[in-house]
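Quick question, first post here. What does this chain look like in 3D?
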Amino acid sequence: MRVAEPPGPLHVTAAILAHSGDSWFWGIGLGILWVVNPAGSAAPAAGWRPWSVGVFLNILGLALVVLAIKFLIRRRRPEGDWGALYRKADPHSFPSGHAARAALILVLVSVWGPPWLRPILFLWTPAMALSRVALGLHYLSDVVGGILLGVAIASLSLAFF
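> Answer (accepted):
Ran it through. Tokens below.
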């Protein structure tokens, strides 16, 4: 499932998709929503500010769970040269935190978010998760496990709140 090594167009597309699931990207985006707090018909019923805080806190909680599982299992990432930052900062691959985060966001947005965002995330989530495999940062089982974990944590959060 790996794409050609750089600088091919498939590699560039996979890299963009892979980075779109980075936690810093979502943290900044949710922070902007919290600060700007745009009003309007596209906003969730309660407004963007509580929505962005709720999603951010879920992402933070999920990150702690993912980190704990990674250090319990300690599965090494696939061999490869791309993604040195990921390989140094987080040498463990199971479960995929990116896939878990994407699935969590998809489930939360499906319930809490605006309807127009759902189809976008239904397309983005598997594409982003598979891009992690395509770049050699994860095994397919890492992203499947991450997606299942993200859905489970989001479901627990929705049941609790």
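The chain has seven helices and no strands.
The mean pLDDT is 84.
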